[in-house]
Amino acid sequence: MTRLMKYFSEGRTSGKHTLPFVVILLGVTILASAANLFLPADSALYVSTYTITLLGKYLCYAMLALAVDIIWGYCGILSLGHGAFFALGGYAMGMYLMRQIGDRGVYGNPLLPDFMVFLDWKELPWFWLGMDQFWFAMLMAVLVPGVLAFVFGWLAFRSRVTGVYLSIMTQALTYALLLAFFRNEMGFGGNNGLTDFKEILGFNLQADSTRVALFLITAILLAVIFVVSQKILSSRLGKVVLAIRDSESRSRFIGYRTDRYKVWLFVYSAVIAGIAGALYVPQVGIINPGEFSPINSIEMVIWVAVGGRGTLIGAVIGALLVNYAKTRFTAIMPDAWLFALGAMFVLVTLYLPKGLMGLYGQLKAKRNTVMNKEPQA
Amino acid sequence: MKIKTLTSAIVLSGATLIALPSLAAETIKVGVLHSLSGTMAISETTLKDTVLMMVDDQNKKGGLLGKKLEAIVVDPASNWPLFAEKGRELLTKDKVDVIFGSWTSVSRKSVLPVLEELNGLMFYPVQYEGEESSKNVFYTGAAPNQQAIPAVDYLMNDLGVERFVLAGTDYVYPRTTNKILEAYLKAKGVAAKDIMINYTPFGHSDWQSIVSDVKKFGSEGKKTAVVSTINGDANIPFYKELGNQGISAEDIPVVAFSVGEEELSGLDTKPLVGHLAAWNYFQSVETPENEAFIKAWKAYTKNPKRVTNDPMEATYIGFKMWANAVTQAGTTDVDAVEQAMIGQKTPNLTGGIAVMNKNHHLSKPVLIGEIQDNGQFEVVWETDGVVAGDAWSDFLPGSKDLISDWTAPIKCGNYNTKTKTCSGQNY
Amino acid sequence: MALCCCLFGLFSLPSFAVESTSLDPLLADLVDAKISKMVPILDKIEKASDETVLPLFRTLLNGDLYYIKSTKQVVGQFDTNGETLYKDVFTGQAHPALTKRDVKKIRVNNTLRGYLRNAIARIQLTSKNSSVRESAVRELLSKLDDDTVDILERLYPHETNKKVKQAMGLALAMNTASQTQLAVSNRIAAIDTLADSLENDVRNLLTTLSNDENPAIQEASKAALDTIAQRANRFAFVDQLFFGLSLGSVLLLASIGLAITFGVMGVINMAHGEMIMLGAYTTYVVQLIMPNYIDYSIWVAIPAAFLVSGLMGVLIERLVIRHLHGRPLETLLATFGISLILQQLVRTIFSPLNRQVSTPSWMSGSWEINPVLSLTLNRLYILAFALLVFIALVIILKKTSLGLNVRAVSQNRNMAKAMGVKTNWVDAMTFGLGSGIAGIAGVALSQLTNVGPNLGQAYIIDSFMVVVFGGVGNLLGTLVAAFTLGIATKFLEPTTGAVLAAILVLVFIILFIQKRPKGLFPQKGRAAE
């Protein structure tokens, strides 16, 4: 009972973070964008396009971390295959961008992407049809990960595959997709993937304004998803989800169809990952099977662990922090950055079991006790 | 009062920030974009060291244009999108004047849009599938016609090979090379049933079935050879399996395009003696330039056993040419250097002169070597003169009519000689 | 090989004076000749001499034949204990004054090597050793020219050894079958005897003959081919089964350590692959320390790798995993960090390049059962080794007190603790054992694949699949799963290709786990929950 109370109060505290988070996120984003667009390049406060693109990428990762946290932190399903949903969303966007190149590819073929021309393909495979329409491609970016998650979740949760078995199965899923997308016969460009994009909805992808716009859209969507997820998780449904995390069999005996809750939460999470992937691709300029690699999916889990699972804000902070550290480390000490990263993972798991948010909570609790004690003294 | 000091502090710090880049511009910056971790580290760290050695060497000679060179190394960690990001970092944050980097095609394709957008300059030192020519990239490795086609010619003419196994890792370089070779072999009258094509995933380690298939394919009477575009880590288990299943070079020679001295240094080559490789460079070629280069490399790495290889020579030639072009242009400005690059001549390490052509590819000699028991190659055949690198293959239907010419008046990487149009340019 | 050449040199001493003088002008020609003009000269040398020329041909075949620049005299290069020596190939007389600068190599290429092998075989037809004679005959089957047939016909009646005689008979039958001027009945009789043989050259000959002008010959050849194909298919099946078992044994070795740490302790050890890698690097270091005893190095490397990886495992358990007790999913994160550190550590110490691990001579080559079926020795040994490790592990867990404690802790930790089992100690030992076995797997894998920083990464996912498919916490399940997956992959591969086979196997595992959520052999009882 006390545990339940704790979760209720936890839910409230994390809800408390929503408004400041949204304000800070959007504030920083808008300021950075303005600094990029309106300040001269030699100004001290100028934010370079490099930084904007980098931040945009981080935000996509943050969204992905949110997706992982929703099912792992709140429902206890450790997915080691979220990279698959992310990459599928990315591929849908990539296919759209590929079709937008039109006859400006190196071979000047109006219909076929370059890699098909040089592998001597004669016509567009069926799954490329319709991808030249933005709305259709975006629908696919959401639908394909969603449907895959539904089928996988429906099979797995109904037959009560849990714990490490489920984790390893999600890993198998993304690994199988990795191998499949590597195959050139699949028609997704093999190892090279999709690249050399020109424009999105008629806007030049290389222009600063497009980059800033993409960055802004990512930030806004992240804020929206954050708020919506917060609402869902603090609703009645969210309580059931937490109950499932803490004791699935008890929840089932009480009468909840736990598998349905899990399936839908899994689908919701996969859709978010798909959206993150779709936003990621135009900003980094390439999508290839490497995104499916199981190591990537493990890294996502680590972002969440570092930030603190079970709190949405923790997932976001973790993703931003780990990726920033990675960028810095690879530049400062290219030969030894893996030591630093590895050590960081070990230390965080050992000393910060609840991640940075847990640390924050501990510090605050300490301060509270100190403050509570003072009047007594 | 307080506000005044604050503003002045801000202005001051702003001024220092602005002043910093101009201070740093005293050196010429050379970006190095090679993976130092992840799967490609095995090949790419060597090239990073080569560039660093060349920079050192140039600085000992007094630098360029009166300035010292400064190498800036980043690690794209074998992660392809990271190549684009790190490329952008080098060009916008570090403001490098030139980049030496990339190994895999996908990493080059990833960084390419960034180079074209920011008008950077990159030297790409690895053999590749061709079908590309960018204003901002110089390709110092071999195109398919500088490696694959001479090798197949050698197999047919000198060894009397009639059946071919085209074995490769499933990615774009083997796919394209094999497409070109298939068309070429068929044009030479080899029947379709005498060509076996096989693709395996990256890092494939269990070669039992495939090697046994090759053995079967090769035992049907006609002289058979394997043309291998197997990449990286997969080679060692492949060769080990060949040795163990008793396929000797006299029965079924394997000619490889991705196996050089460095790959062999991780392998006991006794069972492999006689298998072949086609490159533009072998460490065993005896010329004064090569001897000096090998000596310098061993001294630089402080390892008397370190070997040299073809991509290192490509890096060497690229660096020399770039240094000459900068001197000639009198500036590191990309457009000026790009024009000055065309027509640059540098002695090859294997003798003769390499020339940078109008299509940003080199003219180089092609050598075929047999593996020796000491992990080196012995040259058994070489082209009479140099072969000009062909950006667009004549044996692919899509690129038959395309040429690349970066001099006026065409100034285009893919110019269709039939329709007289230039497509797919980003600059 | 050098030793062998020397011996030959010594044996041929008496006839040296005669031979060498008659060969001298030819040898001088050889030195001057271009590589493409060397075959006719070698032909003359072969005709002009007998068995005594073997050392010359052998040295040339090995690429060890040099000539002295000043005198154009040929010498062989020999390596004895790392020192290069030049000796006369016929007499074995050393030229101690010669250095690398005084001599030049006589180059050989594949054409020449092929010619030399045949020439050596022709000369060896009269060797005193019957197995040498037999392999010489078999070597010549693919190049049956008139000269060879003449020699064979001359030798056949006098041959006393049954096996050699059989091989010679086969060669002569092949010759008879292909001679169009001979009577049809003779040829058909020859073809019928060929039907018993599995040699490739026989099959190629029959394939040619099945397009013969004479319909009777055609028919006979086709019938013979059918008979051969039937037998060959049976052996091909055995071959494929062996491939599958071999892949299975690799999977078993890679995953069995994980079956302990993951299955028994519930630790998701992402650094398991790096434990394998450490074992492989230990093999490398051991070979570096004892370069002259490569054949025995494996026996040193196995315990050394067990200790290195095992101690590293104990270290990891004491420093990290101990603190994460009861939080299996978090061990995944920490050990992932450890795996990054270990990879980079190896990269820093040994460079990112692959390291060369030599195969002991007793492990290289293959066991040729017949011309269509030969099993590679290294894989055969690894298969046996994997089973041995498995049995040893089962014995440890079932028969020793450590095993009893391990099982007790894995079934009910608190109860075991209450009974006085030192769970801390047991945990460390279990993790050390699992890691140590991974190290042993590394020794085996160093014989098959690259020894580099990425070695572990290549096996970690497969290992997890095997353990989960077999059922966590069940060693027998791991064994069955490893061999099932190995054999399934190898039987799929010929029809689907390597990539699709791997995908299909993964999809199969995913679907199988839906059907049986706890793997092939689920743990039973309350401990499973």
TrEMBL record, chain A:
Transmembrane segments: 21-39, 45-64, 71-93, 134-157, 164-182, 212-229, 261-281, 301-324, 336-353
A GO cellular-component term linked to this record: plasma membrane
Principal subcellular localisation of the protein: membrane
UniProt keyword annotations, A-Z: Cell membrane, Membrane, Transmembrane, Transmembrane helix
Subcellular location: Cell inner membrane
GO molecular function terms listed in the Swiss-Prot or TrEMBL record: branched-chain amino acid transmembrane transporter activity
InterPro entries: ABC_transp_permease (IPR001851), ABC_transptr_urea_perm_UrtC (IPR017778), LivM-like (IPR043428)
Topological category with respect to the lipid bilayer: Multi-pass membrane protein
Protein name, as recorded: Amino acid ABC transporter permease
Native source organism of the sequence: Marinomonas profundimaris
From TrEMBL, chain B:
InterPro entries noted in UniProt: ABC_urea-bd_UrtA, Peripla_BP_I
Keyword Nucleotidyltransferase among record annotations: no
Xref: CDD domains: PBP1_FmdD-like
Domain of life (superkingdom): Bacteria
Keyword RNA-binding: no
Pfam families registered for this protein in UniProt: Peripla_BP_5
Signal peptide from the UniProt entry: 1-24
Keywords: Signal
NCBIfam families: urea_ABC_UrtA
Protein name per the record: Branched-chain amino acid ABC transporter substrate-binding protein
TrEMBL record, chain C:
The organism's place on the tree of life at top rank: Bacteria
Keyword vocabulary terms for this entry: Amino-acid transport, Cell membrane, Membrane, Signal, Transmembrane, Transmembrane helix, Transport
InterPro entries registered for this protein in UniProt: ABC_transp_permease (IPR001851), ABC_UrtB_bac (IPR017779), ARM-type_fold (IPR016024), BCAA_transport_permease (IPR052157)
Main location: membrane
An example Gene Ontology biological process: amino acid transport
Membrane topology: Multi-pass membrane protein
Spans through the membrane: 241-268, 275-294, 300-320, 332-350, 380-397, 464-488, 494-513
SUPFAM superfamilies noted in UniProt: ARM repeat (SSF48371)
GO cellular component: plasma membrane
Record GO terms (molecular function): transmembrane transporter activity
Subcellular location: Cell inner membrane
Pfam families membership: BPD_transp_2
Keyword GTP-binding appears in the UniProt entry: no
Stretch forming the signal peptide: 1-17
Record carries keyword Transport: yes
Family: Belongs to the binding-protein-dependent transport system permease family. LivHM subfamily.
NCBIfam families given in the database record: urea_trans_UrtB
Protein's UniProt name: Urea ABC transporter permease
Species of origin: Marinomonas profundimaris
